[in-house]
Structure formats: C-alpha cells, structure tokens
Specification:
The complex is a heterotrimer of chains A (409), B (315) and C (289). Chain A has 409 residues and is an alpha/beta fold. Chain A is built from 15 helices and 15 strands. In chain A, strand 8, helix 10 and strand 9 form a beta-alpha-beta unit. In chain A, helix 3 crosses helix 13. Chain C is built from eleven helices and two strands; from the N terminus they run ααααββααααααα. The chains are: A alpha/beta (409), B mainly alpha (315), C mainly alpha (289).
Chain lengths: 409, 315, 289
Amino acid sequence: MSKKVGPSRRAMLSVGLAGAATVASPGILRLTAKAENAPIKIGMPLALTGALGSVGQQLKRGAELYAKLQNAKGGILGRPIELLIEDTAGNPANCVRKAQEMVERQNCRLFTGITLSSEALAVVPKLAEWDAVFMSSDNGDGRLTAESFVPNFFRANISGPMGTRAVSLYLRSGKAQKFYALGLDYAWGHNSVQVFEDEVKKSKKDFLGKVFAPTGTKDYSSYITKIRQSGADAVFLVLQGDDNNAFLSQSQQYRLSEKVRLLTEIVDLASIRAVGDAALGLIGSSRYSFTYDYPLNNEFVALWKKEHDGAVPDTFEGEQWQAMKVLEAGITKAGGIEAAKLRPALEDIEIESVKGKVHIRKCDHQGVQQGFMVEVVKQEGIATPIPKVIATFPGESTTPKCNSMTFDD
Amino acid sequence: MRAVTRPILIVVMLALLLAPLGLPPFAMTLLTEALILGLFAMSLDLMVGYTRLISFGHAAAYGMGAYACGWMLLHTGMPLLFAVFAAALLTGVIAIAVGWMCTLATGISFSMLTLAFAQLLYAISFKWTSVTGGSDGLAGIPRTSGPLGFAALSGKSGFYYFVLACLVGGFLVCFALVRSPFGAVLRGIRENEAKTTALGYNTRLYKIAVVATSYALGGLAGALYAPFAGFANTELLFWLLSGQALIMVIVGGAGTLVGPILGAAFFMLMEHQLSSLTEAWALYFGLIFIAFVLFAPQGIWGLATAWLRRDAKAS
Amino acid sequence: MTTLAFLLTESLNALSQAALLFFLGVGLTLIFGLMRIVNFAHGALYMLGAFVGYSLAKGSGNFWVALVGAPLLVGMFGAGFELTVLRRLYRRDAHAFLMVTFGLALVVGEAVRLIWGPDALQVAPPSALAGVVFLLDEPFPVYRLFLVATGIVVAVAIWQFLERSKLGLLIRATSQNADMASALGVDVKRIRSSVFGIGCALAALGGVLAAPLVTASNGMAATVIIDAFVIVIIGGMGSFLGSLIGALLVGFVQVFGNYYLPDLALAFMYLVMLAVLVVRPGGLLGKET
C-alpha cells in the first residue's frame, strides 16, 4: 500500500458502506498488485450522434488510430491503452452520467475528447472529486483556461481566442481596413468576436459592428444583408457545424464574397466537404491542417492514409492525435496516471507534435503552439477544395495572457 | 388490484431504503437519477393521466427548478434543503401564471401553448446570462449542507435518501390528491369537461391548480437534479426533454402515478445501456416505443399489474 | 442599398422562407385535420427527404430528379407506415400516436445517420438556378425566387386539389366527420393512407428544397419540427389556409425580426404564437379542439 491507488480508496469506501470490512483487504491487495501492468484507461464520452456527431466521430478515429499504433509498440510504460468510448449525443446530462460511470465502475482517471463546450463545462467542476485529469482536444471556449479553470484540466488544442488572434495578426499586414463580425449567439461566438473587436481596434482599423445568430439558424439572409450594408471590406465569422454550412452556402448564392472578404475563426475540412466550392477563398485560422508541411505531420498523414484508404486526417483527428501525444509524454514522465503525479508532470511539458512544438504552460494549462492561417483553394486533381497554409505565427504571440482571454499588444 | 400491488410496493420500498447498503457506487448514481426523473414524470402524469392536459412543455418546470435551485446554491449560500424547496415553490408560483395563460385554450392548443412557454424560457436562458450563465449554464453547483445539521444530505447516500424522501412525499401528495374530491373533479374534466362545467364547477380554476401542482413537483425534480449533477444548462429547458417526459409517462402507463416512475427509470436506464452497446441505439430505442404502442398499450405498469393479477389467480 | 431595394429583397427572402415553412406546415395540418395525429416524426421525414434527394441528385446528376423522386419515395414510406402501424391505432387515444411517431422520429433519424453518415452533405442547386438576378441593383439569388414560385405553385395545386378533385372532396368530408363519411361509403382507410403519405411527401419536398440552403445534415430534424408546430398552431390545426397564413406570418416576422432585433431571433416565433393564441385560442382559422 505504498502507492496511493485510486481504486483501493474507492473500493474501501463502497465496501465499507456495505459494512463488510473483512472482505475489503484481499480486494485492495489484488488491485494494487495489478496496477503495474493494468491497462491505462482513457475515458472518451463523445458526441458520436446528434448535430455535432461529425466532430465526435473525428475525435474517436483520432484516438483509435493512436491507441492501435501505440499498443503495437507496447503501450505506455508497458501498459496497454484502453479507450472507453461512449456516446453522449451531445447532451451534458448524458456526458456527466457516462463520465461518472467510467470513474465509478471502470476506475477511469483520464478523460479526453469531451466534445461540446457545454459538456466540458459540466464535467470540469467534478474532476477534483473524481481525482481525474481531462486533456481537452477540441474545446474552444476560452473560459476553460480562464474563469472556469480547474487544476486537473489541460488543453492540448488551439482555443477560440487563439484562433481569433491568429486571424487578427494576419490582418495587421493586410489591406482590409473596415471589419464586421458575425458570431453564433453563445459563449464561444461572443468570446471570439470580442477578442476580434479588441484586436481590430488596437491595430487602429475600423470595427463597424457585430451581430449574433442563434445556433440552428436556417436562413442567414438578414445577416447577409446586414453584412452587405455595413460597407465592411471583410467579415469575421465565428460559426461552426450546420450554421457554418448554411451561411457559406447562402453567402455564395448571394455572391457575398465578391464584395466582402470572408474570414473565419475556424476552417474545418468537414465543412469544406459539405459546401464544396462555396468555401473557396475563405481565409481563416486552422486548428489543424493536413496540408501543413512538417516532417512529423507528413509522417502522421502518411500513417493516416495507410489506415483509412487514402483519406486525409480531418481537423479534429489531428487535434486528438496531438492531445494523445501530450498525454503520453505526461504519463511517461510521471511514471503513472494518478492525478497527483500526472498534473505536475504535464505542467511545463514540451513535445514535438504534428503542429510543431507544443508547450503546456504551467499557469493555466494551455498548450502553447503555433497559430495557422489557411486559405481554401482548389488543387489540381482533387475535387473538393483544400485548406492551404498561408502563414504561421509563433505560439508566444497567439496564446493569451495566463488565465485570461486578452492579449498584451 | 390494490390488494395485489400493495405488498409489491412495500417490498420495492424496502429495497429502495436498503439500496445504499448493497449497491456499488455507480448503481447508486443511476438509481438516484432514475428517482429524480421518476418524480419529474410522475408530476406530468397529474396533468396528462388524470386531467388530460397534455403538456408539450414540461421541461419548463424541470429547467426552472434546476436553474432556481442552482442559482441559490451558487450565489446565496442557502443550504441544500431550503434551496430545493424554495425552487420548487417558485416554480409552482410561476406556473400559476403559465397555467392561467395556457388554460385559455383546450386540447392540442393547450399543448402548444405549454410548448411555447417552455421554448420562450429556453430562449431566455440563453440571453439572461447574468443569472443563467447563458449557453455555459451554471456549473459547479454545491450541495451546501447548512447550519441545521443536514450535513449528511450532501453525501452520496444522504442525497439519495433525500431524493427518495422527495419522491415518496411527492407520490403521497399526488395519491391523496387524485383520491380526494378535487381528484374526482379532475377526472370529470378528463372524461367530459363540458359536463363538469355544467355541474357548476369552475373547471378552469381546477386546471390552473393542477398545472401549478404539477409544475411545483416537476420543479422539485429539477431542483434535485441541479445539485445531483452539479450543473444546470439550457438543455434542461429544451423541448426534447418535454417530449421525453411525455414518453416516460406513456410508456410507464398514464394515469397510474407509479407507472410513470417506472417509465422514467426504464427510459433512462435503457438509453444509458443501449448507447453503451451500440452507436445506433436511437434506432432500437425508437423500435421499442413502437412495439410498446402496438403490443403493450397499457404501458409497463399495465403489463406488471396484468402479470400480478394472473399470478394471483393462478395461486 | 435603397430602402425600396431593401424592402423588396427582404420581402422576397421572407416569402422564400415562408414557402419552405409552408411545405412543412401544410403536411402536418392535413394529417392532423384528418386523423387528429400530432406527427412528431415530421421533422425526421423532412430530413429524410433532404438525404434521399441528395442521393437521387448525385446518382442522376440532376436536381430535378431529386425534387420529384424524394417526395415520392418518402410519401410511399409514409403511406406504408400508415398501412402497417398507424392503422391499428385509430381506436386508441392520443397517447398512442404521440409515442409511435416519437419512436418513428428516432428510427428515421438514426437510419439516416447509419445510411448517409454523420457528415453534412452538399446538395447544389441546379446550374440554371445557381445565379443571381439584379433587383433594383441588388443581387438576389435565383434559387430563392424559385422557392417563392414553387411555394405559390404548390399552394395553388393543393388548394385546387382539395376544392376540385374527388379525392380532395373525400378528404374534406372525412376531416369533417369520419363516421358520417364512412357511413356514406367513403373508403376512410384509403383516404387516411393517402393523406398521411401526401403529408410526408410535402415534408420531404421541403427537405429537398431546403438542402441547397442548409446542406443535408443530421441536425436538420431537431429544430424544424417545432417550426412546423408553430405554423400549424398559428393558422389553426387542420386548416389549409391557416397553415399558409401561419407560414407567411412566421416567415416575415423572422426575416425582418432577425434584421431589426437580432437579440430576439430565438423568441420571435413563440411570441407570435403566444400573441395569436391568447387572442384566438384555436389559431387564426381554427376551431377550438
């Protein structure tokens, strides 16, 4: 009993409640002995179905390929990786219940891939009680590393404010002078539009106005009219999923991009496939792009193509892969998965990943990494447009101040 | 029938009382949530099963209770016990206004008015960020134990017993209500409202009263859910939950009080287990409901009592 | 943009949205008027229409094939469901229909995900409709004009069908009083299957026509069912003309509301619905049910 093992404490608690303390001791011994080569369980309560099912499926594939290849190499610390994948349908109530089950029934102490920000925000306050670490791979909400930050939360992916910052850094050298913004009417949309507005004003350009549309908006005509009337050179979009697809399809039908440059907080491959040529010319930041020419990324893309019949990895497949790599480095350094050891090991860790260097900073557990700007272009021989990397920015300049969503310069 | 079911109910009650002694932690988590949803579905049964007021917006009650309780626990330091009942009371009081508006209409229009109210609340929960937390909702809701020595309520088993007590209390209130003269008027409204009015009853007042009671109990369920799950967010007000609550009532057996509790437990456990087994869980889930309609029209409680009666006859 | 151009283009936008809403609402209201069923699966059938349309358009390379084929196939599916399942339930109370159509919505929604996958799919408008026309110097998508025209054509066609055709007459008679119609020798069973099929086909038509605006996606069923409810309720359950007025009202309020008061975008429909129901509890043209 020298090591503090999660399971034993829990087991003791529950068995103790049953008033059968005598049965407890053999159980504890068995669990402790097994911990040496017991599988490393990674809980993934994902939105596999529902409106964001496409994202959940990407996260699942990204983690599955990683686990398969890593297990072939002997796992981590000689322990096999076991993914506990469950569908939440994007409902926070389901997500909390499934995560709780992984903790209470499967002794899971690691989480990743929790898909929606609303789900992540519901789970995060429970991490301390569960003694579990959560490595975010897709949650963009800036608050998770600011007001809502908890010590057991880590973020390997690029956040909303970081994506917005990359766009604004890119615009500093551009011709566009007058900007308008359209965001989804929830936390992510408001945060990112706010960051963008501040950045535009700081660089002494004109911010003409903003408007927010509720998620699930089917007709964007009124918003398109507003954008056209604003007289802006460029509009900054903070949209995703069905809303993004609807806006891009309809703005193409309006020939909006002939008048106004379309900028976006997130360029996503699945969305490009869904709207086809309507995405052409779109400029925006990218969480991950398979087109980034970098040895580790080329290697990853080749692995992916081999596994998936020549298909290229999508945005969140790359993000999930990177999150697994960060987690792996932390576990290796900590020599185990217990939160008390893993947390300090992950703080200040630095790895080489598909997107270049990723450094988890100690103050708010955000992964500092390069920001990417891409343009959606047509490439010969490929039917659907692809995002081409047109600029990168060092992580130090795209990551906000610690525990905040604001930037110094 | 009463004679057949009573011993069963006593056995179930005993089992529920002893459950924390024998069940592993996660089974307790599931059971607690099932009881909360059971209370929610039972509250809807007062309207649907006994008065034929088919509400399409019962999530409004659940969500209001959850937000009110969550807000009080987060921002006022009020202890759990008071916050839960205050939230239920508040929901009931607001429901008087809702009931007044909705009972202007009857039949399907009544259903749609309740839906409109629930969806308006849903829209408000997005916009009234300072109270509801907007799309983030309220998270990290504590189970503040408070000064009167109710510390045990914040623990896992303590909270379970609290939920169980609320459910049993709610059941007794409903049971007494439907067997009282008041309940007789409700059944009159269900069978023939015009006739009941002709008998000199102000049926609208009765309907408003039943809406308020039903919402208060639904609000109680929501108020328990917030500290149970530790969060409250907009999904709790969304129409999908209202639809699911109706299904819980119908699948359990409307107009039986016990049935909807079973229906809620069945609904939640089935969804939880099926979605663990297959990604295509919604397909099987849907087929189960269609099968219920075709082959077990009286719902789970109907199946259970039929089986018990046959058993009783055989012996 | 001049005020006149603004009013013209926004009004056309409102009409195009009203057309889509009308396809949804009129199917729901026909089904309710005849069978007293609130069809919770209406949104799922609309989504099914969009995906079937995607496959037909892709397979044939022709949007028009999808426009005709998808409603036909979904309509046949609906009629089949009525024949095999709903038919057994007419003696039962409203609960049975609520649950069975809720179940159908789940089954159809999941079937779509299993067959077409979780990603959104592109349905491009046919090239003849892909361009813009200039109205008072403002570009306006031809496709939206096409939606307005289709809406008018379908509305007139349904109206004429209900007023003039024999089947339409029988539908109206059965909606008024099924027992009486049956006693007079009307084949009520056949009428019910046809109407449920027609209602589903209209939902699917809405789905195919909406797809070029919003893509075919797994999320499209969830919100649209409520839109359909609202329209039908505003107009009065079971009233054909009511669903037309409801669609126009919601279309205009939503489009102009989004422009002038975007903060209330989520609430407009419900505010209109509450306002109408408080004044006329049965809907604009409905009887109290």
